[in-house]
Known about the structure:
The structure is a homodimer of 260-residue chains.
Chain A: H1 8-14, H2 29-42, H3 55-62, H4 66-78, E1 82-85, E2 89-92, H5 98-104, E3 107-109, E4 117-128, H6 131-137, E5 144-154, E6 157-167, H7 168-171, H8 176-181, H9 186-194, E7 200-209, H10 212-218, E8 225-234, E9 240-248, E10 253-259
Antiparallel strand pairs in A: 1-2, 3-10, 4-5, 5-6, 6-9, 7-8, 8-9
Helix pairs in contact in A: 2-4, 3-4
The structure holds a DNA duplex (19 and 19 nucleotides).
Amino acid sequence: MAWTTVKNYVQMQSMKRIAVPPAPTFSPLYRQIKASLVQRLESGEWDPGESIPSEAELASQFQVSQGTVRKAIDELAAENLLIRRQGKGTFVATHDDPRAFFRFLRLIPLSGGIQQTKSIPLECWRAKAGVEAARMLELKVGDPITIVRRVLQFAGKPVVVDEIYLPGEIFGEVTLDMLRDYQGSLYSFFENRFSIRMVRAEERLRAVPADRMSAELLHIEEGSPVLSVERISFSYANKPVEWRRGLYSTHDYCYFNELG
Amino acid sequence: MAWTTVKNYVQMQSMKRIAVPPAPTFSPLYRQIKASLVQRLESGEWDPGESIPSEAELASQFQVSQGTVRKAIDELAAENLLIRRQGKGTFVATHDDPRAFFRFLRLIPLSGGIQQTKSIPLECWRAKAGVEAARMLELKVGDPITIVRRVLQFAGKPVVVDEIYLPGEIFGEVTLDMLRDYQGSLYSFFENRFSIRMVRAEERLRAVPADRMSAELLHIEEGSPVLSVERISFSYANKPVEWRRGLYSTHDYCYFNELG
DNA sequence: GAGTGGTCTAGACCACTGC
DNA sequence: CAGTGGTCTAGACCACTCG
């Protein structure tokens, strides 16, 4: 492995300022190790839910101290790529974990209580990427895409209508039956059936009038205000792998956000 | 200073497992130091924008190693209470910093470009807390509150109407003229004029039809969909010190959110 | 008890800022 | 140059989990 770069910092230490070609942008050891770990995660070396090697083991692999590996893992844990469990190990984050669900669907009931959610796939078809979809998913216009429409129920009532655009190259095999048969969240489905893990997302929210079809699906009046949530989801290498637009009926639920 | 508790951990080490009454909930040294720093921030020992003592100095004060102080500061920096600047020092975060502005107003234009924002205070009056305001601000019903109504302009156009509820005990002296005269954001105003620093906030978003007055102020049609943003802001000790409801016109702007 | 992550220390040196 | 935060090390011991 081309690991020399990683040891620049240490070399600079031991060489006591003797002329070392300074890296154009300084990158500490722990960040290089972090990048290496992300690459190994991306490559599928460890599956979601599995444990990665112990800190001591990794320190030995990278030939650095445990503290340095620790700092790399700290950042990955802060970014929700890894999950630490004292006494057990460090695990690859997974959407099978129900806690991940609320990280990506920030809806809570206006008046207390927790409720069951249920996804009801309605349609699934192929198409060619238009200008907008191509831009969002970093594809070329005309590239194959897969589109899914579904309704999300909370406690038996429809609350969200989603239209989901996926790169055909990755998700070309998705069918309505597969979606209907799968138990678990959509991202859990992507993770287990297509080895694509959503890691991060950007959302853009607006208030818009409900179109006729959505209004029917949500059991509300056409034209009444709904929350439009446009989302781009990214996988490990900051690669956009999903673009979706959801209409949220916010009569009984609201979008919750915490500002730090 | 009653600092013995902080040293429990160290004592346990040096006493080599000799019977030490175990704390009911284990709290590592660095967290106790963190709590102490928060308290000192809250007390106003250091003003926003000022630098706090160096890590070495704090380590000496607390009689711990630099690494332990460092970990405490790390967490406070992650929570945006402190800001580290290599080579210069560690500073108390302030809303005077324009970067803080976008942390609390997540509006971006739909089509590129950055624009000037301007706050236009419209009204400011006293009232007694109703049931809802009392609950949100942790007051008693009937306690004095101060209410402010204002419009926020982006690039000269009205985009947000806010109605802001403040505890009268703290903000009883606010007047419309003070608000009009102040250059800078509202939170900067609170910080500099009332020594209250907003540290964290919770927002609840819904899509609602615009009422007549708001519609007029926003130059939109009555009943057209607007984004309702309800916010509770907290100061250092998780104390709620502001409750506001904003109506955002999302025709040209959208609420941006990143999901980690 | 063995193994894992979590805390703490002491000390060295690097990177950045400003005098 | 001194002072500050940032990185790295080596080693000790604590807290937690599980067999």
